[in-house]
């Protein structure tokens, strides 16, 4: 990008600047990181983003905040700006509790691509991070193969899924205590691997 001044953003009150051109630049819209934000802030940001994005996604959303956002944003929301007033219809609100992801987007029925991303995690404690990745991919129209609880302490569990790992186009490996897992998976495939450390353990 040669001229950064040409990039525009939407100012929401005094707490957020929305990057409305993110999807055009990267293929996926800006994602709302909700931890530390108030329910009103999360709701306002999501509704404003729905104005220009088909996919609207918030991560690290607790069940309590998700319920409040649903109550605030249910069906019809009146979005006020000094220059105009817009009515936005919010109908497809989905909460994925394990992933702690909230989306304002119809659940995709079929993947938009034939490519497969394999999401692995070492243990059950790593599930929230693994599911956050998996749900985000699915909302982006990517087919996901989940392989969970395959830490190297029980190597046979991983090796039994070797074919699925080798068939995948890319692999995401989520591990906390089992930091060796990404390296072991790297020995089973030549496909790209994204290693995601967690704070578990």
UniProtKB/TrEMBL annotation:
Enzyme class of the recorded protein, top EC level: lyase
GO molecular function: hydrolase activity; phosphoribosylaminoimidazole carboxylase activity
EC number: 4.1.1.21
Pathway(s) per entry: Purine metabolism; IMP biosynthesis via de novo pathway; 5-amino-1-(5-phospho-D-ribosyl)imidazole-4-carboxylate from 5-amino-1-(5-phospho-D-ribosyl)imidazole (carboxylase route): step 1/1
Residue intervals of the PurE domain: 115-201
Family annotation (SMART domains): AIRC (SM01001)
Gene Ontology terms describing biological process: 'de novo' IMP biosynthetic process
Protein name: phosphoribosylaminoimidazole carboxylase
